[in-house]
Structure to design on (713 residues):
């Protein structure tokens, strides 16, 4: 309440209020000066308010006293409960931790004034999670309350913590939160094999590196604490098998280390150990952190293919051995206990020429064709061994045959020598140096000797003793007109056993040379001159040949042209041609013109025979026309002419269309030419044209109609 000393209680003064919350949160009674709160005040929103009050004259509104300032302070009450920043906490602690191990600290806050009473004094307590965990009342730190808590027994815990103000006394407000605690793993469990003995089986044919089975030790721990390393520590199969740790599955994979043989050993025993790779020293007392098991491996019998005594064979043989000679023997056996007989054969893809063969029973390889080192020095064969009882089981082995050299080839000239001697050569002059080659390959190298097959008065050979020789002249001067070419037989022999030799013949031409010995011309010109054929004579002969060829070509062309030309046309033929090509007789609409085929006998056309002494030209097949009335004169005439031409040896080698198209002198139609009909038009009757068929309808209309018109006029 505000009161002014000037206030006499007569209502002449008026109190006014300004400042924080004036008029909204705080109001003042103008007459009495009492200050009231309009609603509930929360200290947590604002702890104090600064206001200013003044008394003024109601009529003049002038202040009667100076403005005074005062502060309204809000006293706190316990109206806020403690709250946690998170509703759920997550924490972890290693398993097997000692009692009192700190897990996590939770902290609650209270909005009340901590400086006023115990409204903001918080005490923590555990509502859920005992007897495993505890909480410090003042700090809110959660600790383990039981020793050796095992994750493998229980991994998750839920703890409920309460925070209460007023120092935890009755009437205090409280709040709670939940803490989910997980026990993390430590390596407190050693690996354990579920079985003390494990049995595995493996076929004896399993190649090296084949996985035959696996072993696995269980470990209750997780992550790296459960990692295990496997090893073979004892047993009679330590050199035959290996074990590899599979990291992703934590299994021990047993693999074949060496080839197995059922006939040699059928059972192996291994002692396998599994040990943790990460051991915690704090838990050594729980060890040892390893375990062992016995693995028994049984080898199963498999029908194995034959086995050769060697991985490959090498045989050497001379190329001159006789056919059927054995060059070597391969050996193989059946490794199975049954010991099946073995059959040998050659892979013919490695011996396409069938030079070798093999005895199927004992594996002896012998020759079936002659050998030649100069053709092939090596032969790479493949021998197949198979069981007689099971031919599908086969094994191959390479056989290398080396052909040794025998001196069976004579030396020969290394190249073809084009040798010449100058006409002005002197005795002892070098005209050629020769060398030789030999297909054989002796161990001591090639050595050749050169000599003449007989004493030659013109030339001699001098051996240089380095596998070459020189050809020298023995006299002065040579004449190419007398002898243009000399043949010199040279004997070449080798130095191996048996000695081989051959005779090579050098062709030596006599040539004209200059003073320096350079060849200018040889005997080719000399051979042409005596024949008397000059260049002009050769040109004349060539021209004659060309003229003869031209005559032959012209004759052939004329003969072909005569085949295509018709015979000399008779008067009747000319008349027929005029009718055939003149559209005037049939009018413009008659595109077929006149067909003389209507006068022919169809039977005579079918009976027509081709001449056998010539090859007739291909002509168009005549169109079949309606049969015309039989005309004996025309048929007899045609047959007579046909017979004459067939029996006449001077007749042309083809049939004339003009001859066979002759209609005869006694034809009923006589001539249809418009040239003649113009002079005899009044004496002829053309009505018979209508009886000749549809091909003569147009003519019947033209001539028959014209007569009718004339009569009508």
């Amino acid at each position: 309440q505000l009161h002014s000393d000037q206030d006499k209680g007569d209502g002449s003064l008026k109190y006014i209020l300004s400042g924080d919350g004036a008029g909204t949160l705080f109001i003042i009674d103008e007459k009495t000066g009492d200050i009231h709160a309009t609603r509930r005040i929360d200290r947590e929103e604002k702890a104090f308010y600064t206001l200013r009050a003044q008394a003024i004259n109601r009529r003049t509104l002038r202040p009667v006293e100076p403005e005074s300032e005062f502060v309204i302070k809000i006293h706190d009450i316990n109206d806020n409960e403690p709250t946690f920043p998170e509703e759920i906490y997550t924490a972890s602690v290693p398993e097997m931790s000692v009692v009192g191990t700190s897990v996590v600290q939770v902290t609650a806050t209270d909005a009340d004034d901590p400086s006023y009473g115990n409204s903001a004094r918080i005490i923590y307590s555990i509502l859920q999670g005992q007897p495993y965990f505890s909480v410090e009342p003042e700090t809110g730190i959660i600790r383990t309350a039981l020793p050796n808590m095992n994750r493998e027994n229980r991994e998750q815990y839920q703890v409920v913590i309460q925070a209460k103000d007023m120092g935890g006394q009755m009437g205090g407000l409280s709040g709670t939160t939940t803490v989910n605690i997980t026990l993390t793993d430590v390596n407190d469990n050693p690996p354990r094999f579920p079985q003390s003995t494990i049995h595995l089986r493996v076929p004896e044919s399993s190649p090296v590196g084949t996985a035959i089975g696996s072993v696995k030790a269980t470990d209750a721990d997780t992550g790296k604490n459960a990692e295990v390393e496997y090893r073979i520590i004892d047993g009679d199969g330590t050199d035959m098998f290996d074990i590899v740790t599979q990291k992703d599955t934590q299994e021990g994979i047993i693999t074949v280390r060496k080839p197995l043989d059922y006939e040699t050993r059928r059972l192996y025993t291994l002692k396998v150990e599994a040990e943790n790779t990460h051991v915690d020293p704090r838990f050594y007392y729980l060890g040892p952190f390893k375990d062992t098991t016995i693995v028994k491996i049984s080898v199963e019998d498999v029908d194995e293919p034959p086995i050769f005594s060697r991985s490959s064979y090498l045989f050497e043989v001379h190329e001159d051995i006789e056919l059927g000679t054995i060059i070597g023997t391969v050996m193989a056996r059946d490794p199975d206990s049954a010991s099946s007989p073995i059959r040998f054969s050659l892979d013919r893809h490695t011996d396409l020429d069938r030079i070798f063969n093999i005895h199927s029973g004992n594996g002896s390889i012998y020759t079936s064709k002659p050998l030649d080192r100069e053709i092939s020095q090596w032969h790479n064969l493949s021998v197949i061994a198979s069981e007689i009882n099971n031919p599908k089981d086969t094994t191959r082995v390479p056989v290398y045959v080396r052909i040794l050299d025998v001196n069976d080839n004579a030396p020969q000239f290394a190249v073809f020598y084009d040798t010449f001697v100058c006409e002005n050569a002197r005795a002892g002059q070098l005209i050629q140096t020769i060398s030789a080659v030999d297909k054989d390959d002796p161990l001591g190298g090639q050595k050749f000797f050169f000599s003449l097959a007989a004493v030659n008065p013109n030339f001699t050979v001098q051996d240089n003793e380095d596998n070459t020789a020189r050809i020298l002249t023995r006299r002065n001067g040579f004449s190419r007109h007398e002898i243009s070419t000399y043949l010199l037989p040279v004997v070449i022999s080798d130095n191996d056993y048996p000695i081989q030799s051959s005779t090579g013949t050098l062709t030596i031409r006599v040539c004209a040379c200059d003073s320096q010995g350079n060849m200018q011309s040889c005997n080719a010109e000399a051979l042409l001159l005596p024949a008397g054929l000059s260049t002009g004579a050769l040109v004349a002969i060539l021209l004659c040949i060309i003229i003869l060829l031209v005559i032959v070509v012209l004759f052939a062309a004329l003969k072909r042209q005569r085949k295509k030309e018709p015979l000399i046309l008779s008067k009747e033929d000319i008349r027929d041609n005029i009718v055939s090509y003149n559209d005037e007789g049939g009018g413009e609409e008659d595109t077929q013109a006149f067909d003389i085929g209507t006068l022919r006998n169809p039977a005579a056309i079918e009976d027509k025979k081709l001449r056998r002494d010539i090859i007739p030209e291909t002509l168009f097949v005549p169109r079949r026309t309606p049969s015309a009335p039989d005309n004996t004169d025309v048929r007899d005439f045609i047959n007579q002419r046909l017979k004459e031409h067939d029996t006449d040896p001077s007749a042309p080698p083809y049939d004339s269309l003009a001859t066979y198209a002759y209609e005869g002198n006694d034809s009923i139609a006589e001539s249809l030419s418009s040239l003649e009909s113009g002079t005899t038009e009044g004496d002829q009757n053309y009505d018979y044209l209508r009886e000749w068929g549809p091909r003569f309808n147009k003519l019947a209309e033209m001539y028959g109609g014209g007569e009718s018109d004339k009569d009508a006029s």
In short: The mean pLDDT is 81. The longest helix spans residues 535-564.
